[in-house]
Structures are given as C-alpha cells and as structure tokens.
Amino acid sequence: xxxxxxxxxxxxxxxxxxxxxxxxxxxxxxxxxxxxx
Length: 37
What we know:
Blueprint: H1 2-13, H2 20-35
C-alpha cells in the first residue's frame, strides 16, 4: 500500500491542481486507463 501511495504521490506531483476534486478525478482517470486492457 505504501509503495502504491508513493507512486501515486510522485505521479500527482508532476501536475498542479486547482482543487482536490480535480486531482482525484485525474487520478481516477489514470488508474482506470492503467487497469484497462
């Protein structure tokens, strides 16, 4: 879990968000693309 959190933090750290909702939305989109075949 910690590894995933660190990876996510590093990924999100490359972007600047105006709000938490935007960050979560972008992360969910990235996760969905990564899990999709």
